[in-house]
Amino acid sequence: MAIETIKWQGNKVKLIDQTRLPLHLKHIVTSDLKTLIHAIKMLQVRGAPAIGIAASFGVVLGMRDSKAKSFALFYKELSAVIKQLALSRPTAVNLFWALERMKNTALFNRAKPVRKIKQALLKESLKILEEDKAICRSMGKNGARLIKAKDRALTICNAGALATGDFGTALGVFYQAKKEGKKFKVYACETRPLLQGARLTAWELKQEGIDTTLICDNMAASLMERGLIDKVFVGADRIAANGDTANKIGTYSLAVLAGYHKIPFYVVAPVSTFDLEIAGGKEIPIEQRSPEEVTALCGRRIAPHGIKVYNPAFDVTPHELIKAIITEKGIIKSPYKVNIKKILGCMR
Ligand code: MRU
């Protein structure tokens, strides 16, 4: 996989500026916490696992100039940094999961000098990135078992290399299936309002030589009705204890359509995307984004001034519409409440 979305380089975070793709492959290289938080808010770095990785690096950046002489003072500063990062995006639970890991790392090393705690934080963030790479590969292998020769798979948003530390969640399934020599086609929904499908998924799948066709979001029903889609694979931003899944706005419509046309609908996500403290999808916080994302297209206004806008970034697919959830630990099927617990155990 040639795409390296996020990495730690010479005491700085280096990430692909995804708002510039597909026309320009530019990087943001920063040692500044505020710049990193801005990058998360503006979707320069995006996708649940990548947001988690970025946030963990954010903690390192925010704490490395700390002059605290005691753990109590260091922890006070750390809590403030974590609070700022936690406010960057509300839905992808990987953000909070990564911040929790960073907080626990500091607590675990509390008896050490501050210099050592800083080193431990960096080590933990690099571990989160490395673990994500292995997790992507396992999810890919588990999911590729579901791809058959000549399959035509549909996906939405970008759940690929650009959304993770390696080759992605839903798109990782395609990359692995290709590695295994399977021949199949992918249809990518453009994903309004911010066009992650058209800009990012189309870019990375094409680059990796996957047979990909881009469609507008409202074309999915017609494709399904004509028998041109065999399977749907999507990523996730947060999965509740009962399997209800929040993902990019438009995912729920695809699940309803897939259900109507009797097409299997699969979610691909790491264990870090499950939120077992949330019983069902209704409790998942849904990010509302700025009206300009809807009234403009690639910076050009397309709607009248003053028009009212509704712009939720995510929707929730009820578990009844999900055929299986593919994780690095295995494939989870209904009954989700029981089987999610069985596979996850107390691992989070
Ligand atoms: O708003 P975004 O672009 O961060 O939304 C991303 C998605 O909804 C992805 O499908 C999800 O994070 C899974 S990515 C592996």
Automatic annotation (TrEMBL):
Pathway: Amino-acid biosynthesis; L-methionine biosynthesis via salvage pathway; L-methionine from S-methyl-5-thio-alpha-D-ribose 1-phosphate: step 1/6
GO molecular function: S-methyl-5-thioribose-1-phosphate isomerase activity
Catalysed conversion reaction: 5-(methylsulfanyl)-alpha-D-ribose 1-phosphate = 5-(methylsulfanyl)-D-ribulose 1-phosphate
Binding residues annotated for substrate, in chain numbering: 46-48, 89, 196, 247-248
Keywords: Amino-acid biosynthesis, Isomerase, Methionine biosynthesis
Site residues by UniProt (Transition state stabilizer): 157
Pfam families: IF-2B
SUPFAM superfamilies assigned to the protein according to its UniProt record, in alphabetical order: NagB/RpiA/CoA transferase-like
Active site residues according to the UniProt entry: 237
Coiled coil ranges: none
EC numbers on record: 5.3.1.23
The protein's enzyme class: isomerase
Entry's Gene Ontology BP terms: L-methionine salvage from methylthioadenosine
Similarity section: Belongs to the EIF-2B alpha/beta/delta subunits family. MtnA subfamily.
PANTHER family according to UniProt: METHYLTHIORIBOSE-1-PHOSPHATE ISOMERASE
UniProt function note: Catalyzes the interconversion of methylthioribose-1-phosphate (MTR-1-P) into methylthioribulose-1-phosphate (MTRu-1-P).
HAMAP family, per database record: Salvage_MtnA (MF_01678)
Protein name stated in the entry: Methylthioribose-1-phosphate isomerase
Organism of provenance: Candidatus Ghiorseimicrobium undicola
